[in-house]
Amino acid sequence: MSDALAPILPGATIGFLGGGQLGRMTAMAARSMGYDVIVLDPDPDCSARPVASRTFTAKWSDAAAAAELAKLADVVTLEIEQIPLATLHAVAQHRPLHPRADAVHIVQDRARQKEWLVREGFPLGAVRTVDTAEECTAAIALLGPSIVKSAHGGYDGRGQVRVTTAAEGAAAFHGVGGGRAVVEQFLSIREELSVLVARSANGEVAVYPPSRNHHTDGVLTWAVIPAGATETLSRDAMALARAITERLDIVGLLAVELFVLDDGTLLVNELAPRPHNTYHHSERSCATSQFEQLVRAVCGLPLGDTAVAVPGAIHNVLGDLWVDGAPPDFAAAMRVRGVRVHLYGKPESRPGRKMGHLSAVGATADEALARVREAYALLRPSAS
Ligand code: ATP
Ligand code: MG
User: Fold this and answer.
1) Are 31 and 131 found together in one domain?
2) Residue 158 shares a structural domain with residue 257
3) What ligand 1 atom has the least distance to the C-alpha of 220?
4) CB 101 within 8 A of CB 92
5) pLDDT-based confidence at 1, cuts 50/70/90?
6) Residue 201 domain flag
């Protein structure tokens, strides 16, 4: 027990399962604090590679490679939840893995996650798990206009089809892959919030104030903090996210995506047991960024201050802005006061691919948001 409480101090090595932008930014925070970083990712050109002293290129199913990474690390964490349980167990056999394998297992499958949330009594929109086209059709007949989402592998709005009538059920079921899926009633959403919770290896919890988020076609466009929610709504959202984190026994980070309905009802959309796109502004706005906080949490260090020191916003930059491989006009964006450009070092742009983001601080949340939106419009003036 006393071993578990001893912090893993700078100088130690942190292993990352996943070297995408979330792994890269966490690795940079770990480096700043004096940790060594090693990474496993299937992509040899993954974003975290330049920050890691060693990169293992292996499939997620390669439990032996993950065990090798673990043996060279003092502690292991992850930036992606779609990792087979056997690989997570192989890591945990050698070194502490945060968050724990069973919690990741619950979250990584949309159906399993939603069933767990319902079972634990957390508030959720009406949802059904379906395994056949017939079940999908029946669920839509029951729920009305809905979104059909694949249980596995969907992110950034991929693997989702919106339907209005049961007649579309079979096509939607096959359209999202023809495997297990969830049918979610289409909700009338007033606003979207998220809450990020950090929990350290010794049980300390720190909750960030809510972020307000805007999505376009299922993909995050911008996020701003503070969210401008009422005192009561903020408190309820933070308490809900904290309760889910403790119930799941997460060590590390848990992002809880929330819907606020037209009548003010707060519902859980989904969970992510890792850094989250909607908290990239924490790098500018909070004394402790989500990336540093993850390092602190998995190393059993005291958690940092989560209060908003200055209002901030981010705007995603997707690959759509690259024309024939030519990047957008980042210099123009940087002329806007308070704006910074963050790029993830991805060698290839593709439509829909998250290439980077813009961040800004401001005197108010509205000003920070206006600045990133202005800067974004300058990236490709002809397009706007
Ligand atoms: P990400 O990886 O970006 O978090 P995802 O692919 O897992 O996204 P969801 O979070 O399920 O997808 O949905 C993406 C967005 O689609 C939501 O943030 C929301 O804007 C919209 N959406 C999802 N489910 C519903 C619903 N039941 N009713 C109305 N809108 C929804
Ligand atoms: Mg989501």
Assistant:
1) no
2) no
3) 3
4) yes
5) very low
6) yes
Specify if 282 maps to a domain: yes
Range of the domain at 233: 189-377
Q: Please indicate, yes or no, whether residues 159 and 135 belong to a single structural domain of this protein.
A: yes
CATH number at residue 168: 3.30.1490.20
Q: Are 66 and 86 a contacting pair, CB within 8 Å?
A: no
The DSSP 8-state label assigned to residue 336 in this structure reads S
> Is the same domain home to 206 and 290?
yes
- Whether 62 and 174 map to the same domain: the answer is no
Neighbours of 297 (CB within 10 A): 28
Cα(373)–Cα(364) distance, integer angstroms: 14
- In angstroms, the CA 178 to CA 150 distance is 8
Model confidence pLDDT, tens digit, residues 205-257: 999 999 999 999 889 999 999 999 999 999 999 999 999 999 999 999 999 99
Tens digit of each residue's pLDDT (9 = 90 or more) over 329-361 = 999 999 999 999 999 999 999 999 999 999 999
- Asked if 291 contacts 275 with a C-beta cutoff of 8 angstroms, the reply is yes
64 three-state secondary structure? helix
The confidence band for 325, taking pLDDT boundaries of 50, 70 and 90, is confident
* Inter-residue contact 225 to 312 (CB < 8 Å): yes
CATH number at residue 84: 3.40.50.20
Using the structure block, give the residue that is written with the tokens 């029946």.
138
According to DSSP H, which parts of the chain are helical? 2-5, 21-32, 63-72, 85-92, 101-108, 110-119, 133-143, 169-175, 231-248, 282-285, 290-298, 330-334, 365-379
Supply the residue whose CA is at minimum distance from atom 12 of ligand 1. Answer: 157
Question: In a mutational test of the pocket of ligand 1, which residue from 176, 217, 269 has the highest number of ligand atoms less than 8 Å from its CB?
Answer: 269
Pocket test for ligand 1, best of 146, 162, 259 (most atoms within 8 A of CB): 259
Note whether 221 and 340 are same-domain residues.
yes
Q: What is the CATH number of the domain that holds 269?
A: 3.30.470.20
Q: Answer yes or no: do 254 and 269 share one domain.
A: yes
